[in-house]
Structure formats: C-alpha cells, structure tokens
C-alpha cells in the first residue's frame, strides 16, 4: 500500500478500515541467503538496501525483541555530517545525502528535518579546531559555516552570552544537519524491506553461530536453527556478547548513554545546539519536548539505565548554556547501550570467519549513520567489497595503526 | 626574612572571615602543611611525637596534627607555622620518608559553630556527600565539593576544616559562604 | 458555590489568586485545582492534539489535564499541574496550549479534523514536495504542538543541592509510610520520610474513614507531634523522590519555597541525593478510569479525586454528580459526597445486581456510554441491556480500580507482575534489592492492610540492618475489599479517550492493532500513548487491557511498559544545581592574579584557570598592538609571564629515575642531578600524550611538569603506572602545582634581572648553564627553585617561589628590572613566542599526532620499554608522512589562519588531495608577517616550496612558503648563551 | 553507585574515575618477542562481558588509590573491591 495525503483523506472518510499491517509477521524459513542479526535501525537499513539496491533475495532480519528496539528506539535523533577525519566525513556525508531523499525513497515520513546543528566555540583553540573541521567538511562536499559571536546571538539570543563561565565565541554551523523521527526511520525501513520480500522476524533471539571449518553456516535462535549463506551482525550495544558466541573479542566496550526529554513546550529551540564547554546538547522535537543529552556514564554496562551524577552534569551544562530553560521539567530519562569502540569510530568489515560480517562500534553516533551504514553493509554483504566511503572502517585498523580517532583520546572507549 | 610581602590564598593582606547565623568561616593562613609518604620498606614513623592516624582519620598532639591522605601517605599540619620550614623539619624527623612542602598548595577554611554540632552537620549536607552523622571529631577525608576536591576534617563537634587547592580559594570560599548564607535564609 | 463544609482548609485566611486574569479566592490548604473547583471553574485546560476542553481529572501528581502556566515573567512555569500547585496569596496562573481564550481555542479546529489525525497519520503524508516539510508542514505542526510556554528569560531563582544519608528512606507519607516511619524511627535508626504532598497523610486525608473511631487527622496529628520529638527522623514534606538509582541512591526534589510568593529568601527548590541503606516504597496507588465516548468532558474525573476534593478540600465540581464504577470504591465517593450535601444523580455500576450503600440511585449492570457538555459536563448517557437514557449531572466520578504506584521499584527495569485478584500490576521480585514495597503500592490498599504492611516492611528492613524494633500499636482501620469487576472500557463508536493529554483513544489502539503495531512499545510509539507529561499514569494499564482484548491475549502477555525516572517532572534548574552562570565551574586563579588585575590585564579562560591574556597600556588601541609590544620587549629586553598553571608533580623515591624512564618516551634515568630535560610522554597506543620538563633535584627527587590542560589526566596516569603497572618500584608522587608560583623570565636581560633578586647565586653560563636547575633563596631568604629552560628561544629561566609570594615577586621583578625593559606578557604573547620558536603546544599535541609528526621521532628510545613505545612503531604510524613545519605567507600582507588545509599549488582541493593543516598561527612581530605551524605531508622535503592554505570556510586561499618551524634563532644560540 | 573502598568503606562513585578492564594490569613486556601482537591484544581487545567484570577505578576525589572493582555489568551489583596495587604486587610474586 502506498502512503499519500490522498490515502490519508480517503481512509479518514471511510473509518480507517483500509489500513493494512505495516509489515507481515512471517515464520522463519529453514534457510536464507542472507541473515541479518539485529532488527534495529542498521539491521533494517541493511536488509532494505540489500533487497532494493543490491537485488538480494531470501533475506531475513532476526530481532530479539520488537523491530526498532535497538538504539534507533532510544537516541536523540540527530543527523549530521560534521566530522573531521577523512575516514569518517565522506561516509557521514554519504549518509546525509541518503537522509535527504529517504522519505520519498521508502514512502514513509520519517520527519527528516534539516534545521541545522550549531557547535558552540568557547576558546580560540576550539575555533582553530572547528575551522579545521569545517574546512574538512567543505572539502568532502558537505556544508559548513563558521559563525562569530554575533552570528550565534542572531540565531539564539537567549543563550547565556552575558554571565557565562565559558563565554560563547562563535560556532560551527551545519545547516543541512538536523533531526529525524527515530522510530519513523526504523518503521520506514522495516516497511520498505517487508514490501521487498524481506522476512522480519521478531522475538527471535540468536543464541549461537554454527561455524564449521572457519565458515559460518547459520545461526541458532530461540525459534530454531536458521541456515544462511551469509550472516551480517548489526547489534550495536550487544556486539560484544553476540560476537563472543562466534569466539571473537572486539575492540569495543559496552557503555550506557543516557538521554533526556522535557515536558512538551511551545517551540523555542529551532535547531540542534551543542555546548562546547560542558556536556550538553539539545534540540526540540516536533511534539515540543526538549531532547537533550551529554556524556556517557563512563563505566561498562549492559543495564540500559544510568545514574544520577550524569543527569546532574547534563542539567548543569544545560542551565549554564541556556538559563531560560530552567523552568522546563525533565520528563523522562532513558539509557541505551553503546558499542564504544577503541578509537570512537565504527567497524563495517568482514570477520576472520568466512561468511560472517560485522557492523559495530557506533559509539553514540549510530543514528545519523543509519542509512549509509545499511547501504555500506549491504554492499559488503552482496559484493564482498566495501563501499568506498566506508573503506576505512576495517577491523584490522587497530593492529595496523590506522585508527580513526576524531577526539584524539586514544584507546579508552569512555573518552570518545 | 624576605623583603617580599605574602598575600593570603584569597588575595588579601589579612585572612578573611565572615559569619552567617551560628556559623563562622575563617581563612587559616597560619597553617603549615607538608605531605609525608612511606618509602619502600620504611616503617611508619612517629614524627614530632605524633602517632599517625589510620584511613579516614585525623590526629592532633604535640602542637602538630596529621590526617591520612592515602595508603602510606599523610598530611602533617603545623598550626601557626606557615612561615617556618615545616617540611624540612618533618623530613629531619622522618628521614626515611618522602616529604614535600605543601603549605602554599592549599587554602584552609576553618568553620566553627556557635550552636553545637547541628549547624556543622547541616552545612556538610549541602556541600559534601559524606554522612555527617558518621563523621565525628577525628574524621578526615578527601572528597568532591562543587567540582573541587577538598580535604574535610572534623576537628571538633563544632569545628570543621575544609582544605582546598590554593588556586581555587575564591571558588571554595564562594561555595561555603553561599551554602552558609542559604542555611541562614531557610524558611522555618 | 461548590465550596462544601469541613475539609482541611484554613478558612480563617483568604488567599487571592487569578486564573486567566480573573480573580478568585481560596484558603490555605487549597491547591489551585481545588480552589478553582470551589469557585465553580471546571474548564482548566486544553488537550495536546485536538485542543479539547478539559477539566481537572485527578487530585494529585498524576494529573493529565489541568496544566497551567504558573506565575508570570521570568518565573513563568509551564505545564504546572493545578493539582500540585499549593495556593498562596497573589498566585497567578494562566491556561495554556490555546490560540485565543480557553473557552474559544481556535486550534479546536483540530478536533473537527480528528478523523484525519488518527494514530500514525504523520508518517503517511506531508512528504511532497520534499522541500515543504521544513518550510510548511513542520512549522505548522510545531506551532500547534507543545503545551505550555517558557518565558525564555533566565530563571531568577536560586537552587540548591545536598546530600542525605540514612538507614531507611520511606517514600510516601500515607498510611503505610507513616506506619513504616513510626516503626523505624522509634527503633533509633536514621530515618527519612519523604512525601510529595505538603501535608502528611496521603489518602487518609481524602477519606472519611476513622482510625480508632476518630478522624484520621487526629492520629496523624499525634504522630506528627511524636515525629517532631525524634531527632533521628527527618520528615520531608513537599519532597518528591523521583528516581531510584544504583546501590540505594535516590534523587529527590524538595520544593522549599514554591508555596510562597516569590522572591524567596532562600532557595526555590533543593535537589537531594539520598543514600539509604534500605528503602520502603509506600507511594500509594493511582486510580484508573473506564473509557467511554466523550469521557473527557470537563467535570469528569476519577472518583477518588472527587472524594479528595470533597473531604480534604471541601470542594465539589458540581452540585449534582454521578459515579461510574466497576467496584465498591465508587460507592464510597457517592456516600461521602452525599454526606456533604451534594446531590447524587446516580451510581452507574458495571456489576449486575449491586445495591446502593446509602441514599442514592444505583444503575446496576449499566455503563456510561456518552457525555454531553463541551465546556462542562451536562448530561450522561447511561446504557443498560441495550437501553439508553440521559442523566443530568455536572460532574462524574469514575472508579475503575487502582494501579499500584510501582514506578520507583521498577527504575532498575524490574518488571511488575500481574495480580489477577487485584486486577493490577504489583511490584515483582526483581526490583532493587535494597527496596521493599508497602501499602497500596504493593496492592495492599485497605487502610488496615496499608498500616500493617508499612510497619512490617520497616521491621523487616531494620532486621536486615541488624536492628531490632517492635511493632507499634496501629489504629483500628477499615479493611474492606473493593470487589472489583474486570470491566475495562465501554464499547461503542464514539471516541473514548484512554490517554487524555495526548488524545489517544480506544480507536487509536484498535488502529495500531490493525496495522500490526502490537508490541506494547510499538503501540506507545505509534499512538504516543503514555508519553505526555503524566507519563500515562492514568492511561497505560487501561490501554494494555484494550490491546489485550484485541489480540486475545492476557494483559501480562500483552506486556507492561518500562518505568524510567523521573517519577514526575523535575525542573531543569534544580537538576542543574545551585551554582550556574559564572559559577558553573570553579575558577582557578594564578598567584599573580591580583597584580595582573591591578595592571589592567585582560584575562582569558584556560580550562579552569583564568590567565592574563595581555596587558594593554594607555594608547594601545588593539590587542595586537599590545601583544606585539610584549613579544618585542621580551626579545629585546626581558619579559615576565606567570606559568604557574603548568602541572607540577613531585616524584621521589629510590626508583624515581627508573619510573620516569618507563613513563617518558625518552630516557630520564640518565639525567644528572641539577639538570632539566624535556620529556615526551606517549599514550600506550603510541600517540603523543603530553610534554613537559623533568628536573632532577636529587638522586631520588625529580620535579616534572605537565601541560596546563593535561595536569589532571597525567597525574592520574602516573598514579596508574605507579600502582598498577610497576608497584615494585620505590616511587612516591604528589602534585605541587598550586604550591609554587612559577614565573617565566625570558629575554636577553633575563640573567641580569635575576641577578638582582637571587641571594648571591652564581648565574653565569658556566655555573648555571642551559637546562640547569637548582634550589636557592631570593629576595633575602625566600626559598625558591630556578630552572634554566626556554619556550621562547631566548635566554630564559623559570623561577618558582611559595605561591603566597608570587604576587610580590612579580611586582618586585618588574620594579627592579625597569631599566632592563622588564615587561609582563600574557598568554597571547606566550603563544606568539612559542610559535616563533616552533614549540609544540595543545594545538599540536591534540591526541591525534605522533612523535614522528612532531619531529621528535628519534626521541622514542628503542633501548628501553616505555609506555607507547611498541605501538608507536605500528605500520600506520610509521607510514605517517605529515610532519611539523613552519609556514609563512609568500605575500607578507596575507594572513596565516589556523585550521586551513594545505594543498599542492596545482591540486584540486578535496579530501583525497589534502596534505595537512595549519595547527597554530599568529602575527609575528619578529618576522613581520603572519606565521604558522602545521603538519604537512613530506614537509621536511618541501621546505622552501610553496603551498596553498585553503580556508574555504572563510573564503580564503593563501600561498605560503614552507620553512623550518624555528622562526627564531634556529641554531639555538640565544638560549644557550 | 557506591564503591566499597577497601580502606574507606562505601564511597560515592562520583569520587572515582573509571578506566576499564582490569586486564590493563597485565602490561606485556615491550622488549619481548611478539610484543606487537601482545600489545594489540592488551591495548585494544576486550572481553566486554555481560556479567561479572573486573575493572579499574581511580579514587580521584579521594585517596588516589586505584581499585579493582568486581561488578556485574548487567545489574551493576558490586561484588568486591581491592587495591590494584596489592593485586599487581601479588601478580608479580609479592615483590617488596
């Protein structure tokens, strides 16, 4: 069924009787050409692009819980391509271009909204670093603007300009960045994949890999054994424990990242703002909630919940930057488990086990990568060759010394 | 004696002090400090006749005092001896230990209550995540306070010392004075 | 008037307040909601999506409808529940989420268009043309969405943080909580009793039941008197425990002054972090409703709330009310209101064969199937056995059973379990191990059961803590079952609201089911169920029941939602704590701060430090003019700069040298006593970490410096190396950063100046050569340390004295050095001097660079194992071609801009052809043009060549010449003289 | 969270700074054969268990002891804490 304004009107006038399920609930087949483990954003995007772009067939997505229950279901919805390093920026810009055409592509309104992201500058050294980054973005075909203090004040006059511990000296603005309705992205890819014949199998937990002679044959699941020619794992947050079933240790730690939303408010924050002197970033959803976050809790965790000091830290940053939001109330806090990699950048690569592919290590930047990650992973699965913009995301880059360390923090995941 | 004139950690020529209700805060500029660490194989000394306290403890005697700062580590206090070579004297009394002069590394703020222990406890509740009920005289610990790290010493039921980094003296004073002022202004 | 007799309001005082500009009066003890009801105001708000007129639905923090903007100006507080706003004299509130007045909201047009706005409609349209989303559709949606508004002025009130510790935290001051607190406090344990209400008692305040044959308030009053005498019990009213965190830590907000007219003498609110060995959750229960068509009319509310208004607040929403119930509890409301003189139009009871418990009509086996009265209920349709009739009334109380408030027991993702007898979720066994649940929150809803379970929970908790306590004499109390029927919603065609605030109806749930959005998380996300400010407290279980009916599964099979903090909304200002603005983070001042301030220095934030940036003089019009002067004065005479901010670590012990050898990439053990060596630290991954100097004061004593920015992390790293990697070494560490005021004395006259302050120390080049260090005295006996090191390329020293003398030493040196040109310089000139000399600083040591890139590849010793040495030899690091070079404009009038990328002159400028970037740049008065440092591929080989610095961000493209990074005295003669 | 400091009792985790897996104590010998592989494993690869994890915490705002805390990463339950120095010394055969 094609969605359109006409269809919405027609259904409204006929009691909504014509709406069909967004996707089927198929029973698992004994074997597939491709099994994607993980029905989060990246897994669904992979299946969609595998079917759509690379004409794959006999594809299944195996999801432990409900579709979209990965980190695509709990994030701060920001999309951007404002990276510094050549291993990253072209990939995220590729992703941005996919975002820009996503909804027409899969006929589902994921509310991609390009209202801009502004990274605030508080020191001269930070300005130098952002200038380097902004130039890297432009050189990779993305957009960027460097604002001075007045430029920032013109956009957001209610930021703390006059009583700040760390004065605002300017900002790096990417206008094409913004937000997207995170669940809508998952549903759009899921519906699109389902229409292309992909079996989306919910409540199907992978409990093991069947590996013989260094080659993967299929997966053991809570719903029985499923054979596969190729298995792609896209379970960021749980990559450690899933890949352990294949006998692999990864350059990844699992950490909890909290995010927050305020009660609904009339529009005040138009785009995305990040504080450069504290742990705080914010946007406002179409429903009116201020969606904000900060730093990870900082310790290994699979608990999907965080602790009070980080909540206070983020709120302190928010109040320091935006003292006018003080009377808004925090409505909900949640925690997601992040694959924090050793250099802060992801992995899209083959593994030493033939037929087993890995998409992991997204740290807390996975949402914005959803379209390109799925595209690139699908290409790798289909052709065994990496997508050109994802060619640096190799698993062996650590051993060989080609890390992609945007923050320059070294091999300590909780600092990325 | 040098011809240079020192200033206090808070930048004054004389120590600062202020009162809020029952609580008074005063900058203790006379306090000499020196750290002492056991070297490998060294036995615990009894410097200047003082039995060094165990973890979490503060002891005073013979005109000096000491608090535990870490395994095998203490800070020695010499009240009114900031202008002396306190560290050198300590080193001479504990030659097998590493001794470092610390008098100028810190600001010491002495807090006194004129109404018994409760104002001290109330102030602690607003400042540090330490259970005031279990933090009686003779307790000392290092902890966080408004993004600073401080030593907190309960010198007596009605006296508390907060020792913070010297460069942060102004921010520390602000935090303590504001907390004390707000306690004074609390609705009955 | 619908003000009733009795109640817990203080009629001796009258409080004036306004709502939407109209004046009303109430009394102490009122909430805004109760006072409005008492003034015949039923319409209090508008719903989120359809802008339906709404009245107050509850009497507590679960309120979905009666949300207002409280106070005005910078204190305007949106989405404030009128049910929780304690009335004070002068209170001002306005309704919200409306265009026009509350009575005539223009956006109510949405309600007429509601067929188009079914669940999930957004996802199916607004996609064409593409550009219209940001320009048209989304702005339209954003304007219509949201609830209350912020003033966007800075919050003027003060907030506080604090820490509490106790043996037992009791959450909730109702029957169970009071019994628990009493039991525990009598045992001598440290107890905190926290309740969100301004008055202790919980539901006891809302019921007409007696305790020991007397009003419940008598028992509460006696208890409060005893509580006041127990120093080990802290009673916290107006305090919401909003979150359960790990290991017995709870977040709580005390509304210290919200019930007072502002401005407040103290703080508005305090955030408490409570650490409790054990906790008892006695948060009561929330009543649920029974959806039917048009069940959102103002005047329709929960029956328990109606009882609260009547009994506690002496207010009724109407003179004639009806009750819709599936249990006996609804009849209590009828009895209590009748006793207060309110006419009962009837009790519509879904259970067949039930009888009235008093003098009021009962419609047994019936249900309410529709309601009339857009701005206030006028009539109800009552249906029984397919026959309907209309019943006139101004208010309806709905009693659909009670949901235990399990939230705080489920913040660790513990799942509540379904109790088929109670027809509700009760806390499961997987809650926090240090928390137990009592009273209605545990499904023990009768007063007797609540009292008993509270006291018993306290006994159990104390016994786990090794304390003995005795069960107090608890008052005799009602213990009647409510005989509930599983009746979840009224079938029918009209819209029946489940989640009032977010306008989620039974139809929306049916549509979600039809579209296969059946897992409860899909249901929530597709329909927005439970995502409003009340977090679905009155909606979620009912919605599960509807979905369960559709799928044919049981309610527990259908699922339960995950409870997350906070329990109720918490103001960002109180979470953000007491100190903000300039006090957001503490400020570190250098020892010469006061002196610099007196000189008129401009200061700059450097991490936590404030440092003098430059020292403008009269007549200087730009900062550049000042900085150029400072630089030239230093190179011509002598400059003085406070460099105290560099981290200083005292390293002692027999193995100090060996320890530093392993920590630094270059050798340190071989350093002679009395000498200093530059040191480069790598991270274990082989990248450059930090640099500084190591001065050897004695065989077993070094003083090492770190960069300002990394002082903390490097100290931590050194302790890690000492304790975790090489505990066998005899080494002791202590930071001495603040103990010493350290001043850089640089320039050709540096020696001459120092000779005037040292106490007879031989500073000649032979006695005290480049890289020497010593302990000495200055200014007639002041102990000091002197290091002959240079970051400017000039003859230079750093002198350290006890911090309290730093201010005076600086003043003294400027004074005695006047004829030598002694000039203070700030961080800007410091930066220029080091760039001119080609010294790496933070922009070069940014964590992404290597020793090789910094031109220090040879410093990484291959003869010893040191941190990072092995990994620095990896293929990728060895193959790195970019190296630090100097850069000068070909045309001296052109700027050199840090952050520019470097390209070959003829290359197309793109990621693939990028050769490097400019790390640091400045105007060099010494060179007479802009200069820069940068990392350039094959840079050393390119020296002398031209290169393009591209800064497309600012439309710049400048031809530069590649030069040695040492713009000043590349041979290093000056600093060795 | 509360960390059971072996010398100071329960202390708020906010006083601590977290590093990671306690396997970081077992630093390979940089001069030994095969050091490159050993360091890759040591610096980059982690067990990252969903369950009991031994990990390094630094009492930064306290006594500056490095601790090895044994903690369940799924429940956050803490099973114990030791001074890292003691553990490291024991591993080195109790030198000193």
UniProtKB/TrEMBL annotation, chain A:
Major location (coarse): cytoplasm
Domain FAD dependent oxidoreductase span(s) in chain numbering: 33-380
Keywords: Cytoplasm, Nucleotide-binding, Oxidoreductase
InterPro entries per UniProt: FAD-dep_OxRdtase (IPR006076), FAD/NAD-bd_sf (IPR036188), SoxB (IPR006278)
Subcellular location: Cytoplasm
Matching Gene3D superfamilies: D-Amino Acid Oxidase, subunit A, domain 2, FAD/NAD(P)-binding domain
One Pfam family here: DAO
NCBIfam families per the UniProt record, alphabetical: soxB
Protein name: Sarcosine oxidase subunit beta family protein
Species name: Rhodobacter flavimaris
UniProtKB/TrEMBL annotation, chain B:
Protein name: Sarcosine oxidase subunit gamma
Automatic annotation (TrEMBL), chain C:
Aminomethyltransferase C-terminal domain boundaries: 882-969
InterPro entries found in the cross-reference section: 2Fe-2S-bd_N, FAD/NAD-bd_sf, GcvT/YgfZ/DmdA, GcvT/YgfZ_C, GcvT_C, GCVT_N, Sarcosine_oxidase_asu, SoxA_A3
Pfam families linked to this entry: FAD_oxidored, Fer2_4, GCV_T, GCV_T_C, SO_alpha_A3
Spans through the membrane: none
Superkingdom of the source species: Bacteria
Presence of keyword Oxidoreductase: yes
Residue ranges annotated for the GCVT N-terminal domain, each copy included: 593-864
Gene3D superfamilies for this protein: 2Fe-2S iron-sulphur cluster binding domain, sarcosine oxidase, alpha subunit, N-terminal domain, FAD/NAD(P)-binding domain, Probable tRNA modification gtpase trme, domain 1
Domain SoxA A3: 493-577
Entry keyword set: Oxidoreductase
Annotated family: Belongs to the GcvT family.
NCBIfam families: soxA
Protein name: Sarcosine oxidase subunit alpha family protein
Organism of this sequence: Rhodobacter flavimaris
High-level lineage: Bacteria, Pseudomonadati, Pseudomonadota, Alphaproteobacteria, Rhodobacterales
TrEMBL record, chain D:
Organism: Rhodobacter flavimaris
Superkingdom of this protein's organism: Bacteria
Name of the protein in question: Sarcosine oxidase subunit delta
InterPro entries: SoxD, SoxD_sf
Pfam families according to UniProt: SoxD
